[in-house]
Amino acid sequence: MLKRATGNAMLMMFAKRNICIVVGDLLFVNPIQRLGEEGMESGFRLEIRHAGCYDKEDSSAYAGSIIEIKEPLWRADVLCSEKGRLLGVFDRAHYHASFDRGVPGERIYSDELMATPIEFLAKVLGDVQHAAPMGAMFEADLDDDDAEAIAELSKVALKEINSFIDAVRLRKPWEDEVAESNGRAGVRMSWL
Question: How far is the CA of 62 from the CAs of 58, 59, 65, 154, in angstroms?
């Protein structure tokens, strides 16, 4: 069983048209311990999602809008193991190029994402139509206007992501939450 909570996790959203980039910090203990993926991972998650905004039928002109964030289309997990955190490297950074009803495909590891996450994300998000890490997502789920919106949003989002990188490097692990998970298969502390 996976323990799921938001705890003190942060979430940022950057939206334009019907597309958004969401970024949240993440602590993860994989319920399926694969070789090389054992133990706790921490860092941040960036996802491209469709989004919507609407009002209740009976609301006034001054009422707050309801914001809906839909299932992920693409994801980058910029994570480090405990050893990586101590060394200041994102040794578990990977992305997911496909999703099936919200469930990600296999982890795809990238040396470039591990070494220079901001530069990798800037390159990929700045040109989703041609970036290989996007897989078939662009053709299936996005149009040219979405690609332009993602490129524009990514410039703002990537400036803010540095705060997540600094927080990951300085943060002490969420020891209480992890200790609570003893006897369970995994933990995910995040909004995403």
Answer: 12, 8, 9, 30
Tokens of 3: 């323990």
Q: Give the Cβ contact number of residue 88 at 10 Å.
A: 10
The pTM score is 0.85
Report how far residue 92's alpha carbon sits from residue 99's, in angstroms, rounded to the nearest whole number. 20
Burial of 92 (0-12, 13-18, 19+ CB in 10 A): buried
φ and ψ of 182, to 5 deg: -50, 135
What is the spatial distance between Cα 184 and Cα 142, in angstroms, rounded to a whole number? 38
Q: What is the mean pLDDT of each run of 10 residues along the chain (192 residues)?
A: 62 90 85 77 90 82 87 92 82 91 90 93 89 70 88 90 68 55 64 81
Residue 190 to residue 155: CA distance in whole angstroms: 23
Q: Are 137 and 98 in contact (CB under 8 A)?
A: yes
